[in-house]
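Quick one:
INPUT:
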């Protein structure tokens, strides 16, 4: 993948993820505020479990978004170091189609399929 194309793809992914993170953080604040306004008696509060579930989902999404931003930042560092597009495990080139689908990919498809952590 052309370095300029890669940088643009990574910048776009980072911007999208940052926007999602901002949205989720605002929603989490709303959920927490709604829970604070509600009765502290969760056992008898019909909305208690719903708010707790939504809060848990938002926290998980925020954490995934933070990890995604860190992965994109690491990919930008690899791009600057001219190691972008090479598998961190075996050193082979990562297929362009994989980089188009997952611009922050660290592993070639062969190594990714063998890895226990298949995040990227």
């Amino acid at each position: 993948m052309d370095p300029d194309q890669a940088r643009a793809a990574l910048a776009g992914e980072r911007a999208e993820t940052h926007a999602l993170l901002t949205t989720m953080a605002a929603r989490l604040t709303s959920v927490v505020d709604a829970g604070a306004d509600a009765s502290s008696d969760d056992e008898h509060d019909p909305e208690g479990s719903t708010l707790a579930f939504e809060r848990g989902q938002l926290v998980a999404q925020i954490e995934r978004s933070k990890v995604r931003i860190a992965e994109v930042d690491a990919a930008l560092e690899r791009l600057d170091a001219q190691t972008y597009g090479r598998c961190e495990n075996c050193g082979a080139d990562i297929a362009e189609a994989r980089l188009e689908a997952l611009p922050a990919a660290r592993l070639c498809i062969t190594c990714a399929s063998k890895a226990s952590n298949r995040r990227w």
